[in-house]
Amino acid sequence: MRNQATSPIDALSRVSAALADPNRLRLLAACLDQERCVCQLVALIDLSNASISKHLGQLRDAGLLQSRREGRWVHYKLPDDPSSPVRDAIAMVRTHALQDELIKQDRATLSNIDAIEPGELARMQREGCCPDLSCCPPEATNTPTADDRQGVQP
Predict the structure, then answer these.
(1) What pTM does this model have?
(2) How confident is the model at residue 153 (pLDDT cuts 50, 70, 90)?
(3) Which of 16, 86, 125, 136 could form a disulfide bond with 131, CB atoms 3.0-4.6 angstroms apart?
(4) Measured between alpha carbons, how far is 131 from 129 in angstroms, rounded to an integer?
(5) Helices 84-96 and 8-18: crossing angle, nearest 10°?
């Protein structure tokens, strides 16, 4: 009997399941070019810290991301030594997901988020100020609203 935990089909199934959620795809795409602090990812995607952490855990468990703790901060990045299914999945995200309009908007928003020191960003989130950069000047953010994602015009 084969070992279910290490079988190729099991690994492929975990990777496929992790990629089956649009928010997890957005989180993975956000980490394609550099390591990200959880607070940066919370600022990017309009979900609670707990929801973001759950999604990141699923990506990590599938091998699509790896994490490291630095004091109270948790950072995520692409794995240093990915398995073949993970390497293929990351290549697919690079090739196809980066063409998506929402992910293009995310990447523009990340440039604004990157300008804020993670400690300051976390403080802003704790105080209820600007968790999605909505209190920043309009020209400083491209964070899509729910209406933007649904194509609703004001």
Answers:
(1) 0.79
(2) very low
(3) 125
(4) 6
(5) 30
